[in-house]
Amino acid sequence: MFLPAAAVVADEDDAAETASDTPPDALAPTNLATFEERRQAVLEAFAAAGEDRFVKAGCLFELGRAADGLAEVNKGLDALVPGNKINRWMHGGNTGFLAWPGIDCYIRYGRFLDDATKERYRAIYTGGVFYARLTTSNHKIMAAVTRYLATQIWGADAFHPDPFFREDPYVVSQQKDPSDPPWGTYFAKDDPTGEKYVRSIIASTVQGGPGEFASRPYGAHNILPLLTIAGCAKDAKLADQARIAYEVCLAQMAPAWLRGHLATFAPRSYPDTESQQPWGVATIPWLYFGGVSPALAKAKAAAFAATASYRVPAVILTAATDRKTPYFYRALINGWALNHYVNRTYALFSRSAKVGGKPFQGQSYPCGVMWEEPDTRKGSHLWITNPAADEPGKMKIHTHGVRPFEQEVLGRDSLLFLFRISPDNPFPYALGYVLGGYRAVVDEAAARGRILLHYGSVLIAVTASQPFEWDPSAGILAPASKPRAGDSEFRIRAPVSAVAIETAHPDDFPASSPAAQLEKFRGALAARSSLKLADSKTPKAVYRNRLGDELECAFDGNDRVNGKTVDYRTWPVSESPWTSQKLPAGPLVLTDAKTSRTYDFKNWTIHEQTKP
Questions:
Q1: In a 3-state reduction of DSSP, which class is residue 169?
Q2: Sequential DSSP letters for 120-167
Q3: Which DSSP symbol is given to 26?
Q4: Which residues of 66-98 are buried (b: 16+ CB within 10 A; e: fewer)?
Q5: How far apart are the C-alpha atoms of 283 and 236, rounded to whole Å?
Q6: What is the Cα–Cα distance from 259 to 320, expressed in whole angstroms?
Q7: What is the residue-wise DSSP string for 501-542?
Q8: Contact between residue 520 and residue 509 where contact means Cβ atoms under 8 Å apart
Q9: Is the pLDDT of residue 379 over 60?
Q10: pLDDT confidence of 309, banded at 50, 70, 90?
């Protein structure tokens, strides 16, 4: 079972959710070389200044500060008391962001709770309405995990919604059938305790990735509840399965990890907030794999994971940190065929919906290139898209996103975009987001439809099928967050167009200065690279790069690389130098120079062999 790459419209609940896990302010990166150093640092920072009460309590308990932890638990419970106007938006049922870490805290740190606090828990968790299924996948898994564990503690017959909720206008408005029992008496009619949903999510995660994969504000809420089941479920087999699923999530992210960047397509994310400093779900791989540090007091996901006893296997750590030579990483996640080309200090990444349709994805990280730029005042994600939203003053949550009018194919050091834009599209153009902070630039946009940029760790050429206007000083038309100094954008105004990104490592063009390196790169492209667009009923674009590779994309047709058709029907769930999962049913095999680790999803076992 795959989790759908569903169309999502942001709402008030999403706004509140985002506010709970916002991108960090720019801070100087901190070098924390080992897991234990990172764990200790985030525990201390979040215990001192973290905003999530239950996660903060867990950090305090781990640091041996039991009295302070107990005080934070009770502050966390305050916001869940029926009728309490703190976080009023939650009382429609969207309390998972607090209720789920709260139940985790109750089970794992129950030895530190007094009887009065335990009674507060019982009254709130058996009288709340936050178990009903809601809209997005993170809402559902948090609600199901919370209800399953609450049932484990207090029994299936303990749930009687507080009288407050019987008259609450929002709850009443959401009661679809007046004859149904009140919200909170069950998770779902055919799944009253949420157990079926928990089991289905564990199975779907190992087969096709967690919900909202790599989403910075939302992905952690799909992954970390698995860690809760692993550490809190009394059913030992279910706990083992959840731990395996959590570990598989790390294995799915590892080949796309770039020392702080989670360099992959992400549904439900905001691309213009990205720098190499991780936030949201990206702080989880940072905790295990290292790289540029997040703003530790805001790294809620990392802090939660740091309180757990789980430790990542060495073979996954290798997949996340070995960047000595270039490689491809293919993955079938959430129904998207993802492809990545990682070359030491940068990564190109794409996604194709040709594996099963063209879903709309308004909140997303569009495809492009990310690179190492440890100065967190600068962005390091250049991307191209047909924007889902691009109106000044109206982009409070939705950012530029991805529309069904865009398709891509990726090859070695190259990424080709093809656009066929509907006549009624209010944004009839391809949009390119260009980051400031480049060391050198060649602007041939108006003459040749090309710009070249040197970002220190990567050389980038953006080539369009027609000339376009680019003003590096014009800024951003409709930012969804505060723009960084020097960021700019361009638009290719045509119903059918093509854009190619070609990249190179600076070491491939040795010279005395960034400008001289970029000029050498320009000469290589002028001599050997080309972009052709056939504008017809079925548009097709072909890009030949400086290495002689040829990428071909036919809109709603076949993609080809060097004449070979890309067969999305046989796209692997995971394929990289370290990972191999050919089919959703598994097995998943992880390898490095010393160890082979095989995950059997039929029997839920792990077999590891190490060379002597």
A1: helix
A2: HHHHHHHH--TTS--SSHHHHHHHHHHHHHHHHHH-TT-----HHHHH
A3: P
A4: eebbbbbbbebbebbbbeeeebeebbbbbbbbb
A5: 28
A6: 8
A7: EEEE-GGGS--SSHHHHHHHHHHHHHHH-EEEEE-SSS-EEE
A8: yes
A9: yes
A10: very high
Per-residue confidence at 165, pLDDT binned at 50, 70, 90? confident
The lowest-confidence range among 122-136, 166-180, 511-525 is: 166-180
C-alpha span between 453 and 385 (Å, rounded): 19
- Mean pLDDT value across residues 484-500: 95
Question: What confidence tens digit (pLDDT) does each residue in 136-163 have?
Answer: 899 999 999 999 999 999 999 999 888 8
The tokens of 437 are what?
């902070």
Q: Is residue 549 pLDDT above 90, yes or no?
A: yes
The reply to whether omega before 392 is within 30° of 0 (cis) is no
Task: Quote the tokens at residue 409.
Answer: 């194919």
Gap between the Cα atoms of 608 and 591, Å rounded: 10
What sign does the dihedral 133-139-144-150 (CA atoms) show? negative
pLDDT of residue 498: 98
Side chain identity, residue 437: G
Name the 3-class secondary structure at 255: helix
Non-local (6+) Cβ contacts of 522 within 8 A are 442, 452, 461
Alpha helices per DSSP H over 322-387: none
DSSP letters along 460-483, please? EEEEESS--EE-TTS--SS-SSPP
Proportion of the chain in helix, strand, coil states, percent, rounded to 5: 35, 20, 45
Residue 408 forms beta bridges with which residues?
417
Separation between Cα atoms, residue 38 and residue 40, nearest integer Å: 6
Measured between its terminal Cα atoms, the distance across the chain in Å is 38
